[in-house]
Amino acid sequence: MRAAIIGIGAIAKMHARALADLPGVELVAATCRTEEKGRSFATEFDCDWYDDTAKMLRRAKPDFVTIATPSGAHLDAALIAARRGVHVICEKPLEITLKRIDRMIAAADKAGITLGAIFPQRFNPVIQTVHEAAAAGRFGPLAVAASYVPWWRDDAYYGPGRWQGTKALDGGGALMNQSIHGVDALQWIGGATIPGLDPRENPVESVLAITAVRAHDPERLEVEDTCVAVLRFRSGAVGQLLAATSLYPGQMRRFLFGGRDGTAEILEEQLVAWQFRTEQPADENTRTRLGDVSSTSGGAADPMAINYSCHTRNFADFIEAIRSGSRPLLDGHEGRKAVAIIEACYKSARTGKLAPVA
Q: Can you give the residue range of the structural domain that contains 293?
């Protein structure tokens, strides 16, 4: 399976390392407009460098590409790949608006290619364990699903010449960029508690949100560094979101899920609470297996301080879907759901009103 990377930013090296851990996968090429950066990357990962995506697709002939460009440039890269019949897996968010995501999905369907999304938290063992409990009904009627991302980014992160924090390429701030993983985990786990939910229907019905710029220069930062939102699920459950890059020095991400029959709480990779009205034989083993203190800060202050093993599992699922002709766990429609919730949050923050989720 021949792989190529479109866009050699910081996350591209993580993609390259994750792909290298997969048997039968070869990274053959990568694109970047900057020659020095491109040649350095090609040397480090033993692949070819191209300064043009279309040229790379013609000459390197990859089976699939990973898109690691700035978020607002994902659509253009996906369209070029779709026209060549090349499968696409794309970093979060799939794109910065639903309109652009829907164009990606339509192009993939027309070309008959697989479109996959990268949300590595879906492949985090502790998140998967809580999802399984939700699907099994162990929480009872879900009451609360909450995600807290109390992170920090310094002024240099949003500095001149960087795409982060711009409306055109980032599409949003702490919510769209950093906390989107938490948004996706909430809707995925919360949706598992709703019997008969259409797989393409968003489990979140509406949101009420407030955004602000509290720790950075509002004259330079075009988007929010702080957001608090309340979600209503179609089941009646209530969700909470804290999305921040304004909280020095940055703390670990936290999740809370619970109802009348049980509660689970996660601190990054650590399961800190796992209690149910009806104990099962495997529960003590689960607490032991997942109860160790997290070995990573999860990007609380450093965007690259994350474990790429979940990326590897994300890629493995996508590649297996290509080989078997099946649907990956995270296809375009699944990748769309988190952005739909975030778009509604931004609309609510602008209007001061409850906003429906498309």
A: 121-300+331-356
Distance between CA atoms of residues 57 and 356, nearest Å: 40
Mean pLDDT, the chain, integer: 96
Q: Please indicate, yes or no, if residue 322 is contained in any of the structural domains.
A: no
Distances (CA, A) of 23 to 27, 312, 319, 327: 11, 11, 11, 21
Q: How far is CA 269 from the centre of its chain?
A: 16
- 210: which DSSP letter? E
Q: Is the pTM of this model over 0.90?
A: yes
Q: For the segment 261-272, what is each residue's pLDDT rounded down to a tens digit? A: 999 999 999 999
Residue 294 confidence class, pLDDT cut points 50, 70, 90: confident
CATH number for the domain that contains residue 22: 3.40.50.720
Burial class (CB in 10 A: 0-12, 13-18, 19+), 156: exposed
In a domain, 308, yes or no: no
Query: Is 77 within 8 Å of 50 (Cβ atoms)?
Result: no
Last-in-domain residue among 56, 84, 113: 113
Number of domains in the chain: 2
Which of 113, 143, 166 finishes a domain? 113
